[in-house]
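Sharing a chain and its predicted structure for anyone who wants a worked example. Both blocks are below, sequence first, tokens second.
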Amino acid sequence: MTAYLITNVSVVGAAPTDLLIRDGVVAATGAGLRAPDAAVVDGTGLVALPGLVDLHTHLREPGREDAETVESGSRAAALGGYTAVCAMANTSPVADTAGVVEQVWRLGREAGLVDVQPIGAVTVGLAGERLAELGAMADSAAQVRIFSDDGHCVADPMLMRRALEYVKAFDGIIAQHAEEPRLTEGAQMHEGEVSTRLGLTGWPAVAEEAIIARDVLLAEHVGSRLHVCHVSTAGSVEVLRQAKARGVRVTAEVTPHHLLLTDSKAETYDPVYKVNPPLRTATDIAALRAALAEGVIDIIATDHAPHAVEDKECEWAYARPGMLGLETALSIALDVLGPQWELIAERMSRAPARIAGLDSHGLDPAPGVPANLTLVDPAARRVVEPAELASRSRNTPYARMTLPGRIVATFLRGEPTVLDGKAVK
């Protein structure tokens, strides 16, 4: 294993120092380190962050390898500065058995670009009718601890209660896609002024807020852990704030696109902007940003959702919802938050690693710590070119936008997966 000496780098925004990486860990830190056998990486002007962790990634394999594979998604993640991703269960077949989650886990290990931690389905086939094999998935080689029917809401309150009760035995988490289906039937975008003007069926904010309110009460009653996926409304923030003040064991995420883009994008009728939950208003964005800074929203998660060309380049009504996110998430965070490195490290690495129980991730570079880290050039600006993305899909809403920041290097257990901004393998 090659040793690496990263010189003159700022660790999470602190004064420049050197980092020596050897045998998979950070062996030493301090100015003026010497290691004749180490490959030198000039960190001047760069910021070292604990490797990013994504709690919400769609890798599509098995079943939709035309849109993404575990390998291609892992490469996109590494190029985005990630060292671990949690893969959602809405594959084909659905990851609702020990066999499927182990397949995804093994594919991640074979790719070797990021640690891929499968998320298991809550219900069989995501159908919302009966619980999946939660215990078997938890006991599998993949050691699943997060369960979600993402893309579908666990709408039945009794089933949701049973799921929360079941995972409590092994300190698991139910991650809810908060959408009351009876309020969103046929919905195409956020319900509001723009949807009325365009004549598109609206997705009301209350459909999200009502499920979150119900579920925090269930989690409080059961004493179990709840995670709320892709929070998108100001009302949801208030529900979460009140729940946390009462001590409910709830965490929440927001996506980069919900921090930046508004429902006005639907005026273009470009299906790249169709997503679930939909893009909301400027008022919602302001509330989400404030909640992220405050800690009411715990993490930024990408909801990286690759789609094949035929599923996106079609009429709005027929397009699949979802956007790419892994390769641009840190840049959007810098654009929205500025160079608040402590906040970015907490929301994009430390907190998601804690929630997912990924003990070797989310740790600031320090002696003895596993060398899972990323180097960022905050002064760089880049134009997003879809053809240059590592994902098999091209449905990025940031095409040809100029974004701040560039991932220069990513290390997974001391081995570079990205160097000089390019994938190593």
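Comments welcome. The chain has a mean pLDDT of 98.
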